[in-house]
Structure formats: C-alpha cells, structure tokens
Specification:
Elements lengths: L31 H6 L11 H14 L7 H9 L5 H13 L9 H29 L7 H8 L1
Helix pairs in contact: 2-3
C-alpha cells in the first residue's frame, strides 16, 4: 500500500500530516511572550532532541487557556520551535524521491532512509579524508611499511 493511501488531505493546500483536533466553537489567542519562551531546535549535531522536547513541554505547561486542551496548544506551538534545516526536512525528503514520496510503499521508504543514512556517513568520512589529504597527512598501513623498506 502506497503512502498516499495513509495520508488523505482534507483540502488542496499543502498540509501537515499532523491534524490538530479543533474545538469547533472555541477561538483562542496565545500570548506573544510564550513564543519568546519556546526553545529553538536547529537539528545540529550537538543539539539534544529529547532535551528540546522537555523544554518545549515545560513551556506548554505554562499556558492555561480555558476550554483548550494541552494537546491542541502543543500542536499549535511545536512548528514554531523548528529552525533552519529541520524546518525544511520534509520537503527535502520528497524532492529526493523525485516528488514521489507519497507513491512509495513503507518498505521502499525504509530502504530510502537506510540509503540516506549510509550516504550521510560516507559523505562525512569522505570529507574527513579529503581534509587530511589537503594537510598532507597520510595514513600508513602495516603492509605499506614493507614496501617502504625495499
């Protein structure tokens, strides 16, 4: 079964896979000060996603709006915590698939992610090798020593 069968948007505009449970008659405003308190997540290597989520939940717990559940508040606020590459990640995965991400089956998606992670590791090791080569640092292996002595 293709991904598009799991995801059926309710309108023609590009929508998130996460649907906020709407309270039909309740309208609410979130104080601007809350937005300044939200932690930012950039997706950098040194950032801890779990720590980001803990801080996010702590800020959301400060918001107390009558007739609005905490789940709705969290769903409304979470996208405002993402920055830089993390915010663009969903569109990047779709473009890697040639725009056919929703046509792929779950098995194809798992293999795509495995391939992406392998390429990411290979790219990182290649960059390290290339950087060392520029500094004229070369690694000698045990079998190379015998060739040097001749």
């Amino acid at each position: 079964m293709a991904m598009k069968n799991h995801y059926i948007p309710s309108s023609f505009q590009r929508a998130s896979n996460i649907r906020v449970p709407l309270a039909p008659t309740v309208k609410f405003e979130i104080n601007l000060g809350i937005f300044h308190m939200l932690p930012n997540f950039h997706g950098l290597l040194l950032e801890e996603p779990h720590q980001h989520l803990e801080k996010f939940h702590m800020v959301c717990d400060l918001v107390n709006l009558p007739q609005v559940t905490l789940e709705i508040i969290k769903m409304k606020l979470f996208s405002h915590t993402l920055r830089d590459k993390v915010k663009q990640y969903r569109n990047m995965v779709d473009s890697i698939c040639g725009g056919a991400f929703m046509e792929k089956t779950l098995d194809e998606i798992y293999s795509l992610y495995e391939n992406l992670s392998e390429n990411s590791r290979d790219q990182a090791s290649f960059e390290l090798y290339d950087r060392d080569k520029k500094r004229r640092i070369y690694e000698l292996h045990h079998d190379d020593d015998s060739k040097l002595k001749k």
